[in-house]
């Protein structure tokens, strides 16, 4: 028996994927463009979803597209967070000067949490339960990048 | 012996080339709503367990069953994913049957859901992820990349079907016109099925033959589309089924059989074989499923067939390999009307995979439609009474076949 390397695979595979966000998330992104946060409400249990969704899994209830939309404030409560010395959005630069803070924020008036960056906060300032608010990007385009992250109130 | 299982409903989402109005869970949800609508006495809370499947590589969404849990009504309930390539839907349906027949405590009613939203991804990339698995097999046989490019089948599924087609055509002594006739049959049927994708009520043989070759002998107009769509089937016990619908459809036989190894580009027709249209796996799956169902004379006892044929030559081949027609006689059956809606053995009245192909869903849509034909609730319902029907699936790379045999009466134990 001899061993030899038959294959050493180098190369690029191009994989183009499209992601259809659907009509509910469409409304959410339309809201972001106007610097507004919207959610929708289950008529059965009253839970408010942010981002919005077409089904409440708890009640197995379909939430109609044309009903129960809720305008939410841009403020929320920090429910959880983590800290990383790496840059999450760019693998090439890797280590960053200041640690990245990533948080789960429950937008006031909703029953769900969304994940985004915490900005202009040092690790020793963070406290679970603290109030934060959206930091909007200057020019909104109806995309996730409309939210830069969350900042202290 | 397992418990007798019955199908009480089946539902579909609308299918088209681009369902960009919904995300994946929303698409899945459509089929479930359509399925449950037909059983007013039942709600999602009454479902005991869920089985689901698609080909995640096609959309690029990993573990989509977790994302879709709420949209399937499966929160905090047993949920299992089954993914087996082209046969995914058939395997999901069979797994739904297994769940019920097993007789586990508290698991009587099971929802099986299969889907694909192909417009989200690049199907060729998706298939490539499957092909990479095969490439590594070739590597372990000592074949390197340079040699590989000379032997790999072209164009994914069509590269396989082309060999099946030429072997079959020479055996049956038929022409491309016979293939085109099958396409016309399917697309005209699809026109009468609300959820079908390619609806062509006035398609002619000439129009099909007027399209360019993709790979001889298959022309562009003969190929299945790439669709977005979902399908759901509801399985339950014999006892519960009677309260849920007028005509429960009993599942009397299932099989999923692979015929030896088949590596694309190496032993393309299965190892130790030279004829890609031999399809011993299909023959074996039908023998198994028919014997479970107590069927001795499939040609006489089966009233309706849905077979998995993205390409028209496959439809002819499967009907023979599944024992419904004598070898090489299927083309004649399309000429003389046997397979038509009002024929002796109507075939693919839904329009089949040739008209609608949301890959993960396709092999479930076959038994789903075949069951609805027995209930009298199919969208292009045959005029005669259907007592026994079959739903077939094909996939893997070449030789994996799923089969479900259904009837309006329970298993014939006296045979
Ligand atoms: Zn609710």
Please tell me about this protein's structure.
The complex is a heterodimer of chains A (153) and B (415). Chain A is mainly beta and 153 residues long. In chain A, strands 8-7-6-9-10 form a five-stranded antiparallel β-sheet, with no helix packed on it. Chain A has one helix and ten strands. Chain A has one domain. By secondary structure, chain B is an alpha/beta fold. Chain B has one domain: Thiolase/Chalcone synthase (Peroxisomal Thiolase, Chain A, domain 1, 3-Layer(aba) Sandwich). In chain B, 40% of the residues lie in helices and 16% in strands. In chain B, strand 5 and strand 6 form a beta hairpin. The longest helix of chain B has 18 residues. Chain B starts with a strand and ends in an 8-residue tail after the last strand. At the A-B interface, helix 1 and strand 3 of A face helix 1, helix 3 and helix 5 of B. Bound molecules: zinc ion (ZN). Zinc ion binds next to loops of chain A.
């Amino acid at each position: 028996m001899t061993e030899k390397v038959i294959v050493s695979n180098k190369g690029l595979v191009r994989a183009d994927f499209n992601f259809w966000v659907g009509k509910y998330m469409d409304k959410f992104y339309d809201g972001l463009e106007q610097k507004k946060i919207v959610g929708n409400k289950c008529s059965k249990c009253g839970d408010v979803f942010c981002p919005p969704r077409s089904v409440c899994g708890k009640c197995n209830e379909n939430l109609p597209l044309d009903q129960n939309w809720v305008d939410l404030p841009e403020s929320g409560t920090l429910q959880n967070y983590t800290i990383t010395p790496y840059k999450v959005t760019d693998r090439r630069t890797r280590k960053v000067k200041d640690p990245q803070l990533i948080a789960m924020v429950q937008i006031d008036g909703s029953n769900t949490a969304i994940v985004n960056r915490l900005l202009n906060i040092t690790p020793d300032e963070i406290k679970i339960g603290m109030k934060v608010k959206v930091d909007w990007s200057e020019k909104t385009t109806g995309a996730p990048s409309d939210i830069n992250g969350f900042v202290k109130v | 012996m397992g418990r007798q299982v019955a199908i009480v409903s089946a539902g579909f989402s609308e299918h088209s080339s681009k369902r960009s109005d919904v995300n994946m869970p929303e698409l899945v949800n459509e089929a479930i709503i359509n399925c449950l609508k037909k059983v007013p006495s039942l709600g999602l809370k009454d479902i005991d367990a869920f089985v689901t499947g698609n080909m995640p590589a096609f959309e690029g969404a990993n573990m989509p069953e977790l994302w879709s849990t709420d949209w399937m009504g499966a929160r905090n309930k047993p949920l299992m994913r089954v993914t087996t390539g082209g046969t995914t839907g058939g395997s999901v349906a069979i797994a739904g049957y297994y769940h019920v027949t097993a007789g586990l405590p508290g698991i009587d009613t099971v929802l099986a859901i299969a889907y694909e939203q192909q417009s989200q991804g690049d199907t060729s990339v998706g298939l490539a992820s499957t092909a990479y698995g095969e490439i590594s097999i070739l590597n372990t046989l000592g074949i390197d990349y340079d040699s590989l490019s000379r032997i790999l089948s072209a164009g994914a599924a069509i590269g396989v079907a082309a060999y099946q087609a030429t072997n079959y055509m020479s055996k049956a002594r038929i022409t491309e016109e016979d293939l085109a006739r099958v396409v016309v049959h399917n697309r005209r049927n699809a026109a009468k099925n609300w959820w079908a994708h390619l609806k062509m009520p006035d398609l002619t043989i000439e129009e099909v033959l007027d399209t360019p070759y993709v790979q001889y002998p298959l022309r562009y107009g003969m190929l299945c589309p790439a669709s977005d769509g979902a399908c759901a089937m509801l399985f339950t016990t014999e006892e519960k089924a009677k309260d849920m619908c007028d005509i429960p459809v009993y599942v009397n036989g299932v099989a999923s059989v692979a015929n030896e190894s088949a590596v694309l580009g190496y032993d393309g027709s299965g190892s130790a074989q030279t004829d890609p249209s031999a399809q011993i796996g299909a023959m074996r799956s039908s023998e198994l499923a028919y014997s479970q169902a107590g069927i001795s004379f499939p040609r006489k006892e089966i009233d309706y067939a849905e077979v998995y044929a993205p390409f028209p030559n496959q439809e002819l081949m499967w009907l023979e390999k599944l024992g419904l027609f004598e070898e090489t006689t299927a083309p004649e059956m399309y000429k003389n009307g046997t397979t038509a809606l009002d024929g002796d053995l109507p075939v693919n009245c839904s329009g089949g995979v040739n008209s609608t192909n949301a890959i993960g869903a396709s092999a479930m849509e076959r038994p789903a439609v075949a069951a609805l034909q027995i209930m009298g609730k199919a969208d292009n319902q045959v005029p005669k009474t259907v007592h026994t029907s079959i739903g077939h699936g094909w996939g893997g790379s070449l030789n994996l076949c799923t089969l479900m045999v259904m009837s309006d009466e329970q298993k014939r134990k006296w045979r």
